[in-house]
Automatic annotation (TrEMBL):
GO terms for molecular function: serine-type endopeptidase activity. This is Proline-specific endopeptidase. Residues 469-681 form the Peptidase S9 prolyl oligopeptidase catalytic domain. It comes from Winogradskyella thalassocola. Keywords: Hydrolase, Periplasm, Protease, Serine protease, Signal.
Amino acid sequence: MIKNSDITPPIAKKIPHQLEKHGDVRVDNYFWMKDREHPEVIDYLNAENAYCDSEMAHTKDFQSDLFEEMKARIKEDDSSVPYKYNGYWYITKFEKGKDYPIYTRKKDSLDNPEELLFDCNVMAEGESYFKLAGISISPDNKLVSYGIDTTGRRNYNIYVKDLETHVVASDRIESTTGSSSWANDNATLFYTKKDEVTLRAFQIYKHRLGDNSEDELVFEEGDDTFGAAVYKSKSRKYIIIACYSTLTNEYHILDADNPEGKFQVFQPRIRGLEYSISHYDNHFYILTNKDKATNFKLMKTPDSDTTIENWSEVIAHRNNVLLEGIDIFKDYLVISERRNGLNEIRIKRWDETEDYYLPFDNETYTAYTGTNVDFETEILRYGYNAMTTPSSVIDFNMRTKTKIVLKEQEVLDKNFDKDNYISERIWATAEDGTKIPMSVVYRKGIKKDGTNPLLQYAYGSYGSTMDPYFSTIRLSLLDRGFIYVITHIRGGEYLGRDWYEDGKLLNKKNTFSDFIACSVHLIKERYTSSQHLYAMGGSAGGLLMGAIINTAPELYNGIIAAVPFVDVITTMLDDSIPLTTGEYDEWGNPNDKLYYDYIKSYSPYDNVEAKAYPNMLITTGLHDSQVQYWEPAKWVAKLRDLKTDANKLYLKTNMDAGHGGASGRFESLKEDAEEFAFLLDLEGISE
C-alpha cells in the first residue's frame, strides 16, 4: 500500500469512491481511510509519522532545546489562587517534575491543614492519556463526583468518592460528558449521557447513590441538532437542564431540594431565540437576543413565572456594545461587555447607587471575570493579561474600589523583561471594504523592512473570539526575531455579534478573504514578506488554513494546520459523526443544494489542485472526536498526489490522543516545540 523510506514520502493507494448528492458526483480516492481499525490505515498513519520524524531528524536536538527552554519558563511547583466555596478553600497545584494537577482543599481558613482530593499523577499511572474533569462537591462537603477520560475522545466515566474515607464507591456511570450536579439531599446526582456513536450529549439521567437499579432518564433531547447539559445554579436553588444549538436555547428547571420532582420548561424554544439564565433573589436574570437584540440585552423574570411574556428589561440592547456575560453577587451585578473589540467589566449595585467600569489602559489586552462562586462577597475576582504582560489574578473590592494582585504569572527566565516587547493593534482593509483588526507583538528593535519572519494566527468560527493574550511559549519565537499576529477575522465576535454573522453560513468566505487581506497588509506594510510569512490555525482554524492555501498559496512560506476540519462537505453530509447535526447552523446543511454548492466551493479537501503549495505541517489525533483523523490524513494524501512543488509536507498523528493533543502538562510542550522547530528550520534558525 505504501512506499516508504527515509527520503520518499508515503504514497497512499487510491480506491475511487463515488459520493453523489443533488446530481453532483464527487470521487474520493481516500475514502477508505475512514476505517480506524483497518491495519492499512494504521500502517499509513505510522508511515507518515516515520517520514515526518525522518525529515525532521536534523531538528531533534533543537526540538529538545526548545522544549527545555519552554519548560524552564514555567514554574513547576505552582498553585492556583485559592477560591472559597461552601466553607472550603479549593486549590489546584503542580509539583516539580510531575505532569498532572493535584487538587486539595482547606476548611474555613487557609491556615488549616490541607485535604487531598485528587492526585492526578497517581491516577494517570499506566495511561497514555488521562483527563480528570467535572469535579463536583456534594452540599454537605462529604462526597465528590468526577469524570475520567483515558482515550482523548471526551467520553468520560463518572465516579463518586467519599472525602472522609477516600473510598471510591462502586457507582460507575459510563459514556458521559464528565460533569454532574448534586441535588441538595447529598444522595442524588444528575448527569448527561452521550450517544455512543455520535458522542452527542442528549440525555439527562438521575442517579441515586448506592442504588443498583437502572438510573432514571429525566430528559431526552429529541432534536439531533441540539445538545443537552445539566448544572446547578450559583444560588444552589435549582438544577438546570440546558438545551442548546448554534442559534437557539431552551432551559428546564427543578428545585434542588426536590430531586424527585419534575423539571419544568423555563421558556419553550423558539428558533433564533438565544438566552441564558442566572438565578438570584427569587428572580432569573436572562441574557438574550430577544426582539432582535443582536448584541444581547439583560432581562429578568420572577422564578414563579418564567415564560417570555414575563420578561422585563434590565439593560437595553446597544448597537456598539456586545453583552457577553454576567456575574451575580448579593449586592452587585457584574457585566462583561465588549466595545470596539476590547473587554470591559462593568459593576452595578442592585440598589442603583453605583454603576462604573474597571479601568484598563492598553489596546491589546484581555480581561475577564474569574472564579466567583461566593454569593455573599463584595470581592470580584478577575484576570488580566496582554500580549506583553503576563497574566494576573486580581481581587477587586467593589465597595472600596481597591484591588489586590493575588498572583502574577512568573516567567522563569532571567532575560525576560516585558519592556523588551511592543504590542500594537493595526487594521487591514478586506475585499468588501471592512476594516479587520489585528493584535501584533514583537521584540523591540525590529525593523519593518520585509525581512522578518511572521506567524499569523486566527480561528474565525462559532463566534469564538481570540483575544490578545500573553504566552511564555511564544517567547521562543519572539526572541528569535519572529513577529506574532492574532488576526481578528469575521466568524469570531471580536467586533460584536454581527462580526460573527458576517463570517458563517453563506458568508463563510469572508473569514478566508479577511485573513488573506491581513496577510497582504502585513506584507505591504513591510512587517514581513511572502518568503517569511507563516500561518497557523487549528480545528475550524485548520479549515481556514486549507482555504487560504487553495486561494493564495503564494503568500505563505509555511503553514501549520492542527487537527484541521478540511473535508467539510463529506463530514456535514454524515450525520453519524460527532458534532455534524449540531453544526448545520454554523456551516449550513448540505442536504440543501444551496448550502451544498457553497460549502463545496471552499471545502479544502474538495478544492486541492495541481499547483504549488507552501511548506506544511499538519497534525491530528487518532482518537479525535471533534475532527476525525481521516480528514487531515486524506487531505495530505491528496496534496501529495497533486501538488507540483518540492516543498515540505508532513502529517503527524498522535496515536494516543484526541482533539486537545497530549494530556500531560509538559507533553503538550513537545508538540509546540516540534511545530516551532518546523517554522524556525524554514528560516534557517537552528538554535
